[in-house]
Amino acid sequence: MLSDRASPGLKLAAGAGLAFLHLPILLIFLYAFTTEEKSYAFPPPGLTTQWFGIAWNREDIWPPLILSLQVAAIATVLALILGTLAAGAMARSRFFGQNQIALLLILPIALPGVVTGIALRSAFSMLDIPYSTWTIILGHATFCIVIVFNNAVARMRRLSGAILEASADLGANAFQTFRHILLPNLGTALLAGGMLAFALSFDEVIVTTFTAGQQSTLPIWMLEELVRPHQRPVTNVVAIVVFLVTVIPILLAYRLTIRGTEIAGGGK
Amino acid sequence: MTAPAILPVRGPGDRFTALIWRQPRVLLALMLGPPLIWLGVVYLGALIALLWQSFYSIDEFSGLVVPEFTLKTYAELLRPQNFDIFLRTVSMAALVSLASGVLAFPIAYFAARHARGRWKAAFYLGVMLPLWSSYLVKVYAWKLILAKEGIVTWAAEATHTTAALEGLLALPAIGGNSLSTSYIGTFLVFVYVWMPYMILPMQAALERVPTSMLEAAADLGATRGQIFRTVILPLALPGIIAGSIFTFSLTLGDYIIPQIIGTSKTFIGMAVYQFQGTAGNVPLAAAFAMIPIVIMLIYLAIARRMGAFDAL
After folding, report:
1. Looking at residue A176, what is its pLDDT?
2. Fewest C-beta in 10 Å: which of B63, B122, B184, B272?
3. Dihedral pair phi/psi, residue A34, rounded to 5°
4. Is there a cis peptide before residue A43, judged by omega within 30 degrees of 0?
5. What is the interface pTM, i.e. ipTM, of the complex?
6. Domain extent for A35
7. Helix, strand, or coil here: A59?
């Protein structure tokens, strides 16, 4: 007879696997308080909170942080519009070429980031488009569309078509139906998709290195510190900030969709 | 007096509604247009530009790109030093996918078959948070862990296993000065960063394995190992392949992890980055970028045939 209880070995392996996924990140928090500046010595010789103040006063951190927030915000808005439209088209109708369009939508995240990055870069150079904040946004919006699309299309498929017809029968036009019926039903799915897209964009580094020119986003700033470290604990503080800015939207997205049948974040 | 069956038209909004009601294709075109134009122009356009450049070549004397159609650049990929890059990256991607599958299985299996209620939610979040949280922060954390003066060395000293660690680092080819400058380090970080992508499709596939089948196998006298090999594994295979699409593709194109942790030997992603940047050899970079595209297209075709797309 097959028992329904998990064997101790399975419990141990599953627990160890989860620990493997989480412990490394916790270490970043510890290292932000270390008094050791020149190496990654463990255990830290002493603990201090001075690095948070020093990071706050470092002037080279603020412009990348602001740029990253700007790019993520605009890319998210673009992805929300384009992803919702695509979801609206794909959820209910059947048409020629639908499978190809589905493939086109996932391609930007199915292919490695380095491919997207160099493809955009060679297109920019062929067309003589100068690198700017907008070239960064262009790249980010492209791979954020599918995140919003996934969330929106799952909700739309679940939504009964009858309530849209009922709304039309009661005399509402398309805009009224959208405003009063569709939007309230889609709301949390779009919000969740938007937050995931924001987190993805804020953290993106591979495509950005190809589309950014002279500007630095926060991940690019961090990458430079990783390659040529100076004042390591300050990088730790920035790492905590980046971690929190990505994790908080993810947790919110999870809370927003927990009651539905589909949960945000099932696929990146 | 009764109200008319057809309401009077109140304005352009109503006229538009009537149009899309009678011609649903208009609405479809209006919704599909903007995202298709964006992805078609920006993304496909860029990919075509890339493909185009890969057929150009570079003049060896002037270092300038010669805009003439040639297969010379592709032939360069077969040079020993470039072919090594290809082999190194593909074998790393295969090993990382394999290790991710092995490590992910217990987590996915426990979450699918045994976790209920609060535990199920905890497992889901426990996988989703590392999956979505910052890529760079994760890589950075491993730099701290694997550094020579870092926590691994300390733990080895504390448990008196320094000799084992040194033995591991002394291994030819995969060892190195410290874990953060060896292939072992690169491999560990790849597995850590991409493993969550394996867990979720695997868990979805395992959830669809009917319990009754496992019970039937047990009733017929199968041992745990036999049930695993003959029932669970074949039924969960589409999910495992779906997960491996991500682990394989992401390892294939990554250029940050091997640059920060490992022997500074080149991987495909780094080759793309270096050839287009400092070397200024855009055609060769484009040709290198075609490798992951072609591999992934073949991989996706095989995965589709094995039913992996239903598991996504």
Report:
1. 82
2. B63
3. -75, 150
4. yes
5. 0.82
6. 9-48
7. coil
Check residue B3 and report its DSSP letter: P
DSSP letter at B147 equals S
Query: What is the CATH number for A258?
Result: 1.10.3720.10
Contacts of B259 in chain A (CB under 8 A): 227
Whether residue B275 contacts residue B282, with contact meaning beta carbons closer than 8 Å, is answered with yes
Q: Let me know if residue A95 belongs to a domain.
A: yes
Please give the model's pTM, rounded to 2 decimal places.
Answer: 0.85
Cβ distance B138 to A25 less than 8 Å, yes or no, reads yes
Of B129, B151, B197, the CB nearest to A27: B151
Query: Which residues of chain A lie closer than 8 angstroms to B53, CB-CB?
Result: 122, 126
Same domain for A135 and A27, yes or no, is no
Q: State how far residue A21 is from chain B, nearest Cα, in angstroms.
A: 6
- Summarised one tens digit per residue, pLDDT across range B42-65 is 888 888 888 888 888 887 777 777
Task: Say which residue the tokens 């597995």 belong to.
Answer: B191
In this structure, is residue A55 part of a structural domain?
no
What pLDDT digit, counting tens, does each position of A42-78 carry?
777 777 777 777 778 787 888 888 888 999 999 999 9
Tell me: do A21 and A104 sit in the same domain: no
User: Domain tally for chain A?
Assistant: 2
Task: Collect all residues of chain A within an 8 Å Cβ-Cβ radius of residue B202.
Answer: none
A207 and A249 belong to one structural domain: yes
If you average pLDDT over residues A23-32, what whole number do you get? 82
Whether residue A54 is contained in a domain is answered as no
CB contact under 8 A, B253 and A115: yes
Q: Best interface-test mutation with A: which of B136, B145, B257, B296 has the largest number of A CBs within 10 A?
A: B136
Whether A125 and A35 share a structural domain: no
Interval B187-218: pLDDT, tens: 999 999 998 888 888 888 888 888 888 889 88
